[in-house]
Fold this sequence. Notes:
Lysozyme-like, 9 helices, Peptidoglycan-bd-like, N-acetylmuramoyl-L-alanine amidase activity, Amidase/PGRP_sf, hydrolase
Amino acid sequence: MRRLFVYFWIIILAGCCGKPGQIDRGAYLADSTVSSNSQDERIRFLVMHYTAADDQESLRLLTEGQVSAHYLVHSSPEINRGKPVARQLVAEEKRAWHAGESHWQGRNNINDTSVGIEIVNLGFREEAGGKTWYPFNEDQIELVALLARDIIHRYGISPANVVAHSDIAPLRKNDPGPRFPWRQLALRGIGAWPDRESVERHLAGRAHGEPAPVAKIQQALARYGYSIPENGLADDKTRRAISAFQMHFRPEDISGTPDAQTEAIAMALVEKYRS
Length: 275
């Protein structure tokens, strides 16, 4: 008798739920049984940041201030059941306010199409010889790598669309700075990195610091994704964009000088990822 009673209620509930693939939204039903071929993922970019604050202040700024990010990686990530913990502050399907005014590969307002990871790091301090940048620790980078690989896999983000905040906003931002281990992450399948042989081929025997045509570097960086003038002049906007590029791909010299090595790296990246 009890079995018959349960079966009776299953039939009633199935009738209330409507047909398979129909979602009851109160005043109407949404039918999802037929799906369009003309669609792709909203999330196309993964953006790395540093917080320029300690753990407590970083959490406060990202939850109570006018900025936010999808994830926060603390200076010493918590370990729970043997696994490092990343704080998720904004659901991935929601728009976090981490990129601000930004541009990459012909798109503006990168907040609309990205996931942002903030990493607790003080950034830099000003000294007599210039900026001294704070390092990241191994535990942070390991968690960033695990988190980034998962996001990249789920959304099919291409290597050249894993970027720094400074890449998408070179006139305003420096983060995550030249101490961020882009090459180390690229070796784990996270982000882009040029092939050494290609860089050497584009150098064509020139010294690394030899002056290079500004227009050629501007064209290569614009094709790769940067917002940069294409006027053949080493003006302030151009030098800042070049410096952002160097922070990502040649961190030992981020002066913004348009030299032969910078040109060769840019050409190698275009050849590998934008051809």
